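Course exercise 7: structure representation. Students receive a sequence record and must write out the corresponding structure in token form. The form below is the worked example handed out in class, using NADPH dehydrogenase (379 residues). Read each field label carefully; the graders check that inputs and outputs are placed in the correct fields and that the protein name is recorded exactly as given.

STUDENT ID: A-19
EXERCISE PROTEIN: NADPH dehydrogenase
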Amino acid sequence: MSQKENIQSHDRYREDIAGRANVADSPELLAYYKELETYRTGALWTIANKIEPWQPKSASVPILWRYRDLRELVLKSADLVTPEKAGRRVVYLNNSEKSGLSAAVGLLYSGLQTMRPGEAASAHAHSSSALRFIMEGHGAYTIVDGQKMLLEANDFVLTPTGTWHEHGVDSDGSQCIWQDGLDMPLVNVLEAGFYKVHPDLRQAVTEPLDSSVGLWGAPALRPQNVGWNKPYSPLFRYQWGATYEALQRYARVSEGSPFDDILMHYTNPLTGGHVMPTLGASMQLLRPGFVGKAHRHTGSFIYQVAKGQGYSVIDGQRFDWQERDIFCVPSWAFHEHVNSSQTEDACLFCFSDLPVIQTLHLYYEEALIDNDGHQRVGG
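STUDENT ANSWER:
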């Protein structure tokens, strides 16, 4: 019996003995339900199987958003609306049938934003935590609480909850595109979201350029007599060059994971924990020819291909990806990654709700046992 068949058989057994809701409708019950509705109440057994499943059942599905399909549409938005009128000129990724949720997977938001040379968005702040991953172009910058940072391809940048932030492209730069990632759907489900515009529309730059990199960017070193008591990382820009170098060093001394090969988490340099309380991020290196085995875990994950090409099998579907493509792995979906090249590394950037899942002690993981740890591809 396969792992999947064993789980299904076990579930049927539990349903037989554990009192799962199995109540047939009758005229008397239907009338009773209607009477309950008049008092804004309901019978738990009519929804129990849905709200208390035996295992996670994500409302999201695996999706691959190909950059070659989206790039021209993202650039076209700059011909149609200005940053001032749009507020944020972004093409968002949608994986939700629920109106107003606008999630790319689970309770994570993702979108592609573009700006032309000389353009700048007004400064604002919101309850949601946000991150940026730079896809193409040069001359982009962000300002977070008075600190200006220059952005280059594959840099990972934070704009944490409540911080004043704004983005733009210097006049001598090129048109830029980056991915935005936010916990906005989570914050909205919690009904805890606030948004405000800076009273002057622009911030004053009050710190030296890239000051957080100068203070906190050296691995395994921390500055003396510099205090920080906020719940997110004091390092706002994680540069691609240093990240890729760290992955290569790790690869030289490690056999890697059978599922993810060489995976490293971006961390708060003060605590070693996640960069923000609700959003975590990682970068992984798949060495040439790497063929990962399948596993699954709780939490929702959005990947962007930073380097190379390959494919991932997610819940039995194969998705072939190349640089700048984006794909998602819903919670509790079996997934495995493969580097198609025999000579070049592949690198996958990922952001997730892992900090929330781990803080609430909801993280579970299991490997696929059947078929030598690989899924059967069905589509």
